[in-house]
User: Which sequence fits this backbone?
């Protein structure tokens, strides 16, 4: 047998391996084939090909494994059990850029499903190798490594800490300064995933100098990059006053307000989230946002979008209003109440309605003036009907009840309270009647109106427990009127009068 014939055998074998691995990679691109490939034993067949002498076979085998592991945790588990991860990690430091990208893809695909699978990736020593890849000359390798690290870090603080301990954070901060947009996006996203778990992890990101570089990218024209940048800054700012102040000191205002007018819904949402995370901490930070025009910009944003995009803006207004009378008045003066009322009525999702109810409660809870501003928007009957609606979620019922209580305890604007006398349950009724009992003794005009609009009649129809607070309030109201007037409007009094008419002996 000549040398040529011997070589031919090897060439045929190489062609067969190439055809097989390419076919498997193509099949694995379609989710419906995943289970059939697995039951055919594809994992154990691909494993030796990761060490193949031919680089393209190695890369394609890794790509196929990554695609399969990406589909569900069972397939990812099979990669772990097949002892494939240590092989990939070894190759990460030695192989060419194409293989590094494919190997990082497999590690990401396994680690994304659960903390347990991400822990398996960590245990095989992947983090150090991935961190080294962040220094690779090829931006595609950096991107693949940053992506894998982000998918591991997002699960919990322990895994995030492991990523930090591998020395990834300073390298990720260098990656956001690279010219490639895709790399900037993934690096910013990974910094966001690391920062979100605890103040300590966020501080690590801050100490690496991330804030200044992230803040510079708020005005980048790329929407996907802006989303990640705003998210990362939010995840840093949310933990403490000190971290929020560091974000503010990077001069993100007023430029961040332009994001609320962005055509991309997620940029709007993440921009509003960042402002919310800063506003929630202290009255001083909220005042700073008000002075920068932040409240007016958020109100415009809520009016111009729909659904969950509105949620962080709604909550931000609630946080600002909760801090003090003056800040709440800033929300009122900026015409914040009508859009909150619109959200309460228009939105389909109960959690968005609940947030709007909570925010309105925060605006109205300070003084009679604040409560009146909310009450004149005719929102109290809506809050009451949502509280009493059995289809409302438990959270919505709780938030509407608290909002009603907050507003009613301060509201002295009686025309807004009267419609509620008809339907309110006893636990809300006591707050409504309580407000009448405070105002009526000192206001003769209000007493007259109370009679002519049917308020006194409604109060007589309320069935209160003897000795209860509600009964005390009713007695206080009745003591504001002559006895015969109270009797006249009491239930059953017309029958007593008719009986007297029947029994009356005419004087001839």
Assistant:
């Amino acid at each position: 047998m000549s040398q040529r014939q011997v070589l031919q055998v090897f060439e045929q074998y190489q062609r067969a391996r190439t055809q097989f691995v390419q076919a498997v990679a193509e099949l694995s691109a379609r989710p419906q084939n995943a289970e059939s490939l697995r039951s055919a034993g594809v994992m154990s067949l691909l494993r030796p090909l990761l060490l193949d002498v031919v680089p393209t076979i190695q890369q394609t085998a890794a790509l196929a494994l990554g695609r399969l592991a990406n589909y569900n945790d069972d397939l990812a588990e099979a990669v772990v059990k097949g002892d494939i991860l240590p092989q990939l990690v070894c190759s990460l430091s030695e192989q060419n850029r194409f293989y590094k990208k494919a190997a990082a893809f497999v590690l990401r695909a396994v680690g994304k499903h659960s903390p347990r699978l991400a822990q398996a990736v960590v245990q095989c020593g992947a983090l150090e190798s991935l961190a080294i890849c962040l220094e690779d000359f090829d931006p595609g390798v950096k991107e693949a490594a940053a992506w894998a690290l982000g998918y591991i870090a997002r699960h919990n603080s322990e895994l995030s800490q492991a990523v930090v301990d591998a020395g990834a954070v300073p390298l990720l901060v260098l990656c956001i300064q690279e010219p490639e947009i895709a790399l900037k996006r993934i690096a910013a996203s990974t910094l966001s995933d690391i920062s979100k778990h605890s103040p300590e992890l966020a501080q690590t990101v801050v100490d690496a100098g991330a804030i200044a570089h992230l803040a510079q990218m708020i005005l980048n024209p790329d929407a996907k990059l802006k989303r990640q940048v705003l998210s990362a800054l939010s995840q840093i700012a949310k933990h403490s006053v000190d971290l929020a102040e560091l974000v503010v000191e990077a001069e993100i205002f007023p430029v961040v307000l332009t994001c609320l007018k962005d055509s991309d819904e997620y940029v709007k949402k993440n921009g509003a989230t960042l402002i919310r995370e800063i506003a929630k901490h202290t009255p001083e930070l909220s005042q700073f946002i008000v002075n920068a025009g932040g409240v007016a910009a958020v109100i415009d944003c809520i009016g111009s979008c729909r659904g969950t995009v509105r949620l962080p803006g709604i909550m931000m207004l609630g946080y600002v209003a909760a801090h003090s009378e003056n800040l709440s008045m800033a929300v009122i003066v900026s015409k914040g109440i009508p859009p909150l009322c619109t959200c309460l009525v228009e939105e389909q999702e109960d959690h968005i309605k609940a947030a709007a109810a909570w925010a309105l409660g925060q605006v109205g809870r300070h003084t009679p003036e604040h409560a009146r501003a909310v009450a004149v928007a005719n929102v109290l009957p809506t809050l009451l009907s949502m509280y009493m609606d059995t289809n409302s979620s438990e959270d919505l019922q709780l938030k509407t009840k608290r909002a009603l209580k907050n507003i009613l305890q301060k509201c002295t604007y009686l025309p807004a309270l009267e419609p509620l006398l008809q339907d309110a349950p006893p636990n809300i009724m006591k707050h409504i009647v309580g407000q009448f009992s405070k105002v009526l003794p000192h206001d003769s005009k209000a007493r007259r109106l109370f009679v002519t609009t049917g308020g006194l009649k409604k109060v007589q129809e309320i069935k209160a427990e003897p000795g209860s607070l509600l009964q005390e309030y009713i007695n206080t109201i009745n003591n504001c009127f002559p006895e015969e007037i109270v009797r006249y409007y009491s239930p059953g009094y017309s029958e007593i009068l008719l009986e007297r008419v029947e029994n009356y002996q005419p004087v001839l």
DSSP finds 34 helices and no strands in the chain.
